[in-house]
Structure to design on (914 residues):
């Protein structure tokens, strides 16, 4: 009897209600999408749409203005060099932090995160003061002894970008290095591999995707970096003026489309980098 | 025979130890030049003219206004992103739906956008020549060159911090504890409050810590939308820039040292959390 | 009949986890859902517990349309496979959780909750461990905390998902007896999921054998063991060897085996359990002995027939000695033949 009553209930209703027992999906997902759209998607759409009011040729004209082109070249070129430096030294730092117990290791480990935590403007004035050729602790000896000027030259841009990018390489490599099985290294040794052979043929292949990811992250961060660079760079047009500075200049001249054009180029580069990182990560998932 | 067993496997010879020392010193030198020295120089420069000059600089009227504004901005931006982070993590980690990885990528997006571009997008939306500029002007609402714009830009750059810490954590914890709570008669809200939240509390704190550090220290994005109005729309990092450009180095470094102090406190708290509750933070430490 | 499950279906994408599962059990029964992994037994249990919804079908429990109740309303004590203890709460906190979650009208006083928790902890023999955290307990202790927590809400039905799955053999045996005693004392209708047939046959009043989302057979352990209703049950229970062949003129022939069969002619499959073989002199299934295991009073043989079927033979005490490599002839009177 009960079953006769029960079977009159349309099963569809029940299905919808009980698909997942945890409540709140509609509410939290709705809010997530709403907030994401408001804060991230709508503003980014405004950026992407803006430069096309000039048409394609206008867009190209904007980004190929000599001073804009020079600033883009500097931002990307210096970021590439800084990322390479970080790839080398980041690997070194990650390696000693994971493998070699030395006094103060914990302190160094914490210091690596400083560029994440230190406001960029603070880093910027500190680097500028430190490397000033006139009276900087390091800048003056470098000038006097080697005749190298770092502040107010492209070298300063590279230095600031190195500062800002270092933790990305170290922090992506560290967990992978920790996970690499000591057993496989010992196995390599029992098979007659020498230390350098073990490093290049056993450790490096396992490290490669993470290394690339760290490199790409450091590069992406450096391309867009502003605060820590402007003080040490000196912002000389055509020489040490980075793309974000150029965006600000355009804004000050109320050239919104021009500013947006540079912004779109930088955003496009970010997308390509994210894409490359995702590919690397997919490689990492597949052993 | 004795020659064979005299050396234990993987015993380190004197050459290896020297090699290690060289590697450690090289890494330490790099960290010192790029990270530690700039940090030290902030404090040295701040106190170059003595404690009184330092105190004068940080209690001066405009500096106070900047400190207050920075606190207000963080007090608005961090809670908003906290609510978003919880909502996003709940919907993404506890439910299955299509397009999940796309959503996670979108949430991460602000991290790969240049700070200057992050400010630019709000100018393009709400600035005098932006999408909604005319309407806002007619209604007498000012977003750009006002506190509202600063808050928006800060929310954007700190957008992913809490969500990306919580999502992997909640994903890893699964849904069985929540299911158990439901079978024991707990409502959805009480399940969240009594079971889910206590399980992620350290991860939440970790995310809030990083979010707050960035919110208080953001420079590039805020610089674009603030208009640098002294005593009104100047946050601490912007105030540092103004003082530095006016060659008031002691003042600039004094305010900067407060921010550096905040960064150090953040780093210490973060290290303590990682050391004490490492297992209860997001499984993979990515940045 | 107070638990009646009728035609439950549940699809996950393209796969049907439940394809019309039906079962009846009296109030207070101890029911085992037995089946290989992927047979839908956990899905069925989760639907009973309100942790998943059925696509179609109904469940009637003590006159209530069970599926129309919310998870909370069902008051089903659910013991999870990995216990799902709240890791940030003490043992006492875990056990008292359900009581604290009641609406304040029905919520016992703090002192009452403490008293009830102590009482339950003594029922599960964990007196004095109320202040520990789950991470400080052994697997068997966690299991009992999970049980106490489920019992605290005075469940109308107790649902256990592989309750002994994560425990080692000795603890498993102990807990099994203890759980049965507990059930006999409380009389709560209990449904548990297991893939271990020995466990199911040993513990349950009713064994429901599941395969591919349906319940193939349900009944008393003896009945299921002695009279498997389908080919799947015959193969799954009792470690039987399988022979494929034909039935003609009342006899099954296939894979070297020839036995009497009471089913119509046509393709068929026959199953013989290890205990049901006898060594014959002249005729019978010819097998080669691959291995001889003499552990305890029984002798176990691993054999392979000429046709390639691997089979296990258990000889009663006092049988003639068999050596490895020997060729034997086996006959049986207890083959179970099903149409294919």
């Amino acid at each position: 009897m009960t079953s006769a009553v029960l079977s009159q209930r349309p099963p569809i209703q029940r299905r919808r209600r009980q698909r997942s027992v945890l409540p709140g999906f509609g509410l939290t997902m709705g809010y997530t999408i709403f907030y994401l759209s408001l804060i991230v998607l709508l503003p980014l759409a405004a950026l992407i749409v803006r430069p096309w009011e000039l048409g394609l040729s206008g867009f190209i004209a904007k980004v190929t203005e000599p001073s804009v082109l020079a600033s883009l070249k500097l931002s990307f070129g210096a970021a590439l060099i800084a990322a390479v430096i970080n790839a080398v030294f980041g690997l070194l730092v990650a390696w000693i932090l994971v493998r070699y117990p030395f006094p103060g290791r914990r302190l160094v480990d914490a210091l690596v995160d400083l560029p994440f935590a230190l406001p960029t403007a603070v880093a910027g004035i500190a680097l500028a003061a430190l490397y000033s050729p006139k009276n900087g602790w390091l800048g003056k000896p470098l000038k006097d002894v080697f005749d190298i000027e770092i502040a107010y030259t492209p070298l300063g841009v590279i230095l600031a970008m190195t500062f800002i990018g270092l933790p990305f390489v170290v922090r992506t490599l560290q967990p992978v290095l920790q996970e690499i099985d000591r057993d496989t290294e010992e196995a390599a040794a029992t098979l007659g591999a020498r230390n350098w052979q073990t490093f290049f043929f056993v450790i490096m292949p396992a490290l490669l995707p993470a290394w690339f990811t760290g490199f790409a992250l450091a590069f992406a961060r450096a391309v867009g970096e502003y605060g820590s660079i402007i003080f040490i760079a000196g912002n000389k047009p055509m020489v040490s003026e980075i793309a974000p500075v150029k965006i600000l200049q355009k804004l000050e001249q109320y050239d919104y489309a021009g500013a947006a054009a540079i912004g779109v180029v930088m955003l496009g580069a970010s997308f390509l980098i994210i894409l490359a990182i995702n590919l690397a990560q997919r490689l990492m998932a597949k052993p | 025979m004795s020659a064979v067993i005299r050396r234990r496997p993987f015993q380190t010879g004197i050459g290896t130890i020297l090699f290690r020392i060289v590697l450690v010193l090289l890494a330490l030198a790099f960290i010192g030049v790029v990270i530690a020295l700039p940090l030290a120089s902030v404090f040295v420069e701040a106190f170059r003219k003595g404690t009184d000059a330092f105190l004068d600089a940080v209690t001066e009227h405009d500096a106070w206004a900047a400190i207050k504004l920075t606190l207000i901005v963080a007090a608005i931006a961090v809670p908003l992103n906290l609510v978003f982070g919880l909502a996003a993590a709940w919907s993404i980690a506890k439910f299955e739906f299509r397009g999940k990885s796309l959503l996670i990528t979108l949430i991460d997006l602000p991290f790969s956008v240049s700070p200057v571009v992050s400010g630019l997008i709000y100018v393009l939306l709400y600035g005098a020549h932006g999408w909604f500029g005319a309407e806002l002007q007619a209604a007498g609402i000012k977003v750009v060159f006002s506190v509202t714009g600063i808050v928006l830009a800060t929310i954007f750059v700190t957008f992913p911090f809490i969500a990306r810490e919580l999502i992997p954590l909640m994903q890893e914890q699964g849904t069985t504890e929540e299911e158990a709570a439901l079978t024991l008669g707990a409502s959805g809200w009480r399940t969240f409050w009594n079971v889910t939240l206590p399980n992620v509390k350290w991860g939440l704190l970790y995310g809030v810590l990083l979010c707050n550090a960035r919110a208080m220290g953001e420079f590039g994005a805020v610089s674009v939308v603030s208009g640098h109005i002294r005593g009104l729309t100047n946050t601490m990092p912007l105030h540092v820039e103004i003082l530095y450009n006016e060659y008031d180095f002691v003042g600039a470094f004094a305010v900067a040292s407060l921010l550096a102090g905040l960064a150090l406190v953040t780093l210490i708290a973060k290290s303590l959390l990682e050391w004490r509750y490492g297992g209860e933070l997001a499984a993979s430490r990515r940045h | 009949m107070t638990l009646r499950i009728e035609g439950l279906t549940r699809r996950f994408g393209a796969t049907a986890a439940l394809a019309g599962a039906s079962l009846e059990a009296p109030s207070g029964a101890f029911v085992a859902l037995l089946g290989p992994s992927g047979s839908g037994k956990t899905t069925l249990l989760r639907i009973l517990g309100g942790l998943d919804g059925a696509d179609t079908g109904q469940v009637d429990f003590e006159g209530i349309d069970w599926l129309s109740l919310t998870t909370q309303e069902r008051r089903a004590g659910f013991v999870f496979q990995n216990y799902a203890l709240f890791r940030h709460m003490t043992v006492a906190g875990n056990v008292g959780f359900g009581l604290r979650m009641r609406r304040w009208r029905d919520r016992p006083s703090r002192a009452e909750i403490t008293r009830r928790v102590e009482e339950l902890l003594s029922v599960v023999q964990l007196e004095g461990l109320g202040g520990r955290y789950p991470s400080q307990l052994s697997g068997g202790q966690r299991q009992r905390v999970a049980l106490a927590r489920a019992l605290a809400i005075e469940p109308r039905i107790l649902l256990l998902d592989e309750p002994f799955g994560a425990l080692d053999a000795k603890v498993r045996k102990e807990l099994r007896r203890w759980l049965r005693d507990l059930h006999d004392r409380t009389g709560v209708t209990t449904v548990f999921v297991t893939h271990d047939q020995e466990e199911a046959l040993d513990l349950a009043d009713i064994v429901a054998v599941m395969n591919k989302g349906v319940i193939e057979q349900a009944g008393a352990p003896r009945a299921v063991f002695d009279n498997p209703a389908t080919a799947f049950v015959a193969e799954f229970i009792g470690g039987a060897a399988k022979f494929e062949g034909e039935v003609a003129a009342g006899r099954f022939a296939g894979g070297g085996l020839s036995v009497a069969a009471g089913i119509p002619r046509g393709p068929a499959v026959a199953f013989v359990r290890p205990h049901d073989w006898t060594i014959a002199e002249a005729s019978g299934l010819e097998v080669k002995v691959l291995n001889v295991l003499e552990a305890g009073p029984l002798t176990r043989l691993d054999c392979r027939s000429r046709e390639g079927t691997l089979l296990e033979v258990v000889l009663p005490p006092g049988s003639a000695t068999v050596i490895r490599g020997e060729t034997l002839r086996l006959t049986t009177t207890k083959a179970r033949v099903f149409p294919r």
Confidence is low (pLDDT under 50) at residues 1-18 of chain A.
